[in-house]
Amino acid sequence: MDNNRVFAIWLSSINGIGSKTFNKLVGYFGSPEAVYKADNKELIKYLGNGVTYKNIVEAKKQNPFKNIDILIKNKIEVLLITDEDYPELLRNIYNPPPILYIRGKLKKCDEISIAVVGSRNATAYGKFIAEKISYDIAKHGITVISGMARGIDSYSHKGAIKAQGRTIAVLGCGVNITYPKENEKLMNEIIENGAVISEFPIDYLPVSGNFPARNRIISGLSLGVLVVEASVKSGSLITAKFALEQGRDVFAVPGNIISAYSKGTNELIKQGAKLVNDVNDILEEFDLRTDIKERINEQMINTLNNDEKKVYEFICDCTRDIDEIMNYMNYSVSKINYILTSLTVKGFINRVPGNKYEKNFEKF
Questions:
Q1: Range of the domain at 152
Q2: What's the CATH number where 23 sits?
Q3: Is the distance from CB of 219 to CB of 242 less than 8 angstroms?
Q4: Can you tell me the distance from the alpha carbon of 248 to that of 231, in angstroms, rounded to the nearest whole number?
Q5: For 216-269, how does the pLDDT look when each residue is reduced to its tens digit (9 = 90+)?
Q6: Where is coiled-coil annotated (predicted)?
């Protein structure tokens, strides 16, 4: 691990050094290593004789390499904002996290993502909707981002995993801590199907003040934020507020007008958030944004199995009848029918008169 990364880890692990202070220190001294090597006179000149100064002086007595073995042992990757593969959407928000701790893997395809968030005290309706819409989002090759909290967040991750899609959990604690504890199995599944990330160092506890900062990352990673259920004082509304400030789309699922858990979402709709009944209400927002639509279509194609992809590409050339497809694939009629039905249900192709099939030009 290079020195720049080691000293960034050291600096981010100091109590009271959040993203703003981290960036100010690096901006003034030039690098995390320069902060470590600065003498106390330089530090006190910039910081004054306050808590931050004292915490840095105390931290300088420790070995900056002390946590590296723990990170390696737990397969925790460290991504700096200066790294080429740092998420571009996140890099461009106000106050981006200078360092991300990651378990699992961030991929290029995660740039096309939707955050799905909501109440911890979700109703059965809210849990069902969160899981269903997240499942449908993931089936379109779009990454689902949430916060792994109880309620809506957990069911959003579950829906994406059920669809065999990608999902990312953004934590308000260190990535080596499972919070809430009952989500240990879910956390492991998220790591297998995407990533668990945090700007907070390892062993950092999930105190309440961490979560608003966490929420700006959830929206910052996403093209848009869908709020499924939220009370009027829900943290999900903070995520929606960050989304608006970051220029992201905001979506909301309407709910029971007498339910406390729908007051926040219904209010968002009144204020201009797009009402969402199903995944198509989200997808149509991107229809006019050619670059995003093309990426979504590309990622949808990548969700097909080899047989489906081969048949789809054959049909893309021109309209084909079932005999042509059977001869091309050298499969039985029952197997070809199964593949064609799957492609039709998924919206890739349309059946036309004469027992023929063509590409769905409205979607692709």
A1: 90-95+101-291
A2: 1.10.150
A3: yes
A4: 21
A5: 999 999 999 999 999 988 889 999 999 999 999 999 999 988 889 899 999 999
A6: none
